[in-house]
Specification:
Shape: elongated
Radius of gyration: 28 Å
CATH architecture of the domain at 214-359: 2-Layer Sandwich
Strand order of the largest sheet: 16-15-14-17-19-18
Bound molecules: FE2/S2 (inorganic) cluster
CATH class of the domain at 214-359: Alpha Beta
Largest sheet: 6 strands, mixed
Number of strands: 31
Strand content: 15-25%
Helix content: 25-40%
Number of helices: 17
Length: 647
């Protein structure tokens, strides 16, 4: 007689097991990750699974709850005391009695809340670097003079298979008290980043401890975003963000590097500022999630190279000048306390690797999240900030570069430009005939031509125009003939519309005439042209490197990408021609990458390996870049066709 066949979902792993095998053991043998803290004693409740009933003809399995053992006394007791949701079973207690399709519930679904405007929900399979392991330790015996810690290690090896365990020295003075307090039962948090690394006991609690959390954090030059996540369920329990206090030392990255160069205490002050902000965010997410700091055992960070260096306390001066040398490009793994992060005293920190001097761990995070290296199709991944970080590739080959777009896309260097904040115009439409505009203001429900707009706008004011609206207004001006292919505001249109104003020798478009006059000037159009030409030239350079004429799919990462309309990005030629439905904003993809690396240490190896294989292109060293830049100044472009745009 052949053994029953068991299929685990969503991983799709399958195998045959003798009748009577606990489902948890089967999962272990197949490498399916099912959490378990109590080691199969039916007390932690972390090993829950669900049987999918039905005829899975494709797999040759008829699965039913009759093919799993009924709840035994231990499981019944757990269900009574702690309650088990309908249909859920404890996989450590339930045994295989026939063919089964077993669902391992994945709470770690990164949903739209976490990744704003995410292209799709994604399930992160869990396999964190830190595990909780409960053991019952033998009491001391005069005849066997083995230390308390050593007897605990024996049980951790016996019950959990951990050999060659190290222990964080800070725990040594506490071991005896903890063991006695727990009446010879203890929960150990064990950190192991990879299978080749020695496992380390990083924390201990008396008795059964059933809480373990981690942080995933993206340190941007403007904002810092953090998620607090249960390492046991994968659930995001709280998320928060704050502005980067380093802004007071300089708006953009280069001005912060100059600050360090000019001020002897500059580096220290900025490191302190960012660490302080991170610590305050930890307070916030802990409060919101009702979690104690000491239950946070792991943390993962992504950041651009300069933020990455400053956070680690490294002087970023070398990144301000050629050859843009990183102090460390590989992933960094250390104790959280080493970077003054006070979580559990044994908590760990991991920073994703940086790709190049201008393409940081944030781009690595976005790459991990969107996965060009997992695709057959050619994917373009763009994160637009003061520098655009660009990754292009597929399964076989991936290249990356950054391009100096400048701050125009963020509203800086634009006459009426401002950051995206209440009062900023964020959307613009122009009437093709009359050239009259209608627009939307951040913080105001209605469009400017709708009822109630005036009263509502009274509160916020109309203070300026932010990045997304600049792109839209310039694109609309171009579409309706107000600006030429070369980007010249056409004075001839002044006869047609009072919106076209002469300002000296050039012309402007009057977008709003109120308490504050908001115009789009010839210089503004130029600034946008320069920024978009830099972005496009960078993309084009990478396309040439890979020898491709088109890309199959485009992902816009970052805040800017969430707000711009792909259609307008293409009208202006920010991005190459592509099916519009294939252009997607993916929100904070870098943060999603951090979350993936937090919840599954396999993703750490994946991105480390991918980053070493990514070919780094330095735009400043490419003689051809200048020509590509000049060609890209025209709207949408001088040399490249945009067939899908015409359609
Ligand atoms: Fe703890 Fe099953 S492993 S309840």
């Amino acid at each position: 007689e052949i053994d029953p066949l068991v299929l685990f979902m969503p991983s799709g792993k399958r195998g045959r097991f003798p009748v009577g095998t606990p489902v948890l053991d089967a999962a272990r043998q197949l490498g399916v990750y099912v959490e378990s803290v109590c080691g199969g004693r039916a007390t932690c409740g972390r090993c829950q699974i669900e049987v999918q009933e039905g005829n899975f003809a494709k797999h040759g399995i008829v699965s039913s709850n009759d093919h799993i053992s009924p709840p035994g006394p231990k499981e019944k007791r757990y269900a009574e005391v702690r309650t088990l949701p309908e249909g859920r079973r404890l996989s450590c207690s339930a045994t295989i009695e026939g063919d089964l399709v077993v669902d391992v519930p994945q709470d770690a679904v990164v949903n739209a809340q976490v990744v704003r405007k995410a292209a799709s929900d994604r399930v992160i399979e869990r396999n964190p670097a830190v595990h909780l392991c409960y053991v019952e330790v033998d009491e001391p015996d005069m005849h066997k003079p083995l230390g308390d810690l050593d007897r605990m290690k024996v049980m951790l090896e016996k019950d959990w298979g951990y050999t060659d365990l190290q222990v964080e020295p800070y725990l040594l003075p506490q071991v005896q008290k903890i063991l006695r307090k727990g009446n010879w039962t203890v929960t150990a948090a064990i950190h192991r980043d990879s299978d080749t690394q020695r496992p380390t006991i990083i924390a201990l609690w008396p008795g059964l401890h059933n809480e373990a959390y981690g942080l995933a954090c993206d340190i941007g030059s403007t904002t810092i975003a953090m998620h607090l996540v249960s390492l046991l369920s994968g659930r995001v329990v709280a998320s928060s963000g704050t502005s980067n206090p380093q802004i007071r030392f300089g708006e953009d990255l280069m001005s912060r590097v100059s600050y360090v160069m000019m001020n002897p205490d500059g580096r220290e002050a900025m490191t302190k500022a960012v660490r302080h902000a991170v610590s305050e965010l930890v307070d916030q997410v802990c409060r919101e999630g009702g979690v104690a700091r000491t239950d946070i055992l792991d943390s993962v960070f992504v950041a651009n190279p300069i933020m990455h260096h400053l956070f680690l306390g490294i002087d970023p001066t070398e990144l301000g000048q050629a050859p843009f040398a990183l102090a460390v490009s590989g992933a960094v793994s250390c104790a959280a306390r080493d970077i003054e992060l006070s979580l559990n005293p044994g908590a760990r920190t991991y920073l994703l690797p940086c790709i190049a001097g201008h393409v940081g761990a944030d781009a690595a995070g976005a790459t991990l999240a969107e996965g060009p290296h997992r695709q057959d199709r050619m994917m373009l991944l763009v994160d637009v900030g003061t520098n655009a970080e660009i990754v292009l590739g597929n399964r076989t080959r991936t290249v990356a570069a950054s391009s100096p777009t400048g701050p125009a896309f963020e509203g800086a260097e634009i006459s009426c430009g401002q950051r995206a904040a209440p009062g900023a115009i964020e959307r613009v439409r122009i009437d093709a005939q009359t050239l009259e505009p209608r627009f939307k203001v951040i913080g105001v429900e209605q469009w400017s031509d709708e009822d109630g707009f005036a009263e509502a706008a009274e509160k916020t004011g109309i203070t300026g125009i932010c990045g997304s609206a600049i792109i839209e207004v310039v694109a609309e001006m171009y579409l309706f003939g107000v600006i030429s292919t070369d980007g010249v505001v056409d004075g001839g249109m002044a006869a047609k519309s009072p919106r076209i104003l002469a300002t000296g020798r050039t012309f402007s478009y009057l977008l709003h005439d109120g308490a504050q006059t908001i115009t789009v000037t010839q210089n503004d159009v130029r600034a946008i042209q320069l920024a978009k030409a830099a972005l496009y030239a960078g993309i084009k350079l990478l396309m040439e490197k890979l020898g491709v004429e088109t890309v199959d799919t485009i992902r816009f990462a970052g805040a800017f990408g969430s707000f711009i309309d792909p259609k307008y990005a293409m009208v202006l030629g920010l991005i190459p021609d592509c099916e519009l439905s294939e252009v997607k904003a993916v929100g904070n993809a870098a943060g999603t990458g951090a979350l993936m690396a937090l919840l599954n240490r396999g993703h750490r190896r994946e991105i480390e390996d991918t980053v070493t294989r990514i070919e780094k292109i330095e735009t400043a060293l490419e003689p051809h870049f200048q020509q590509l830049f000049i060609d890209a100044m025209a709207l949408p472009n001088k040399v490249d066709p945009f067939p899908r745009l015409a359609a």
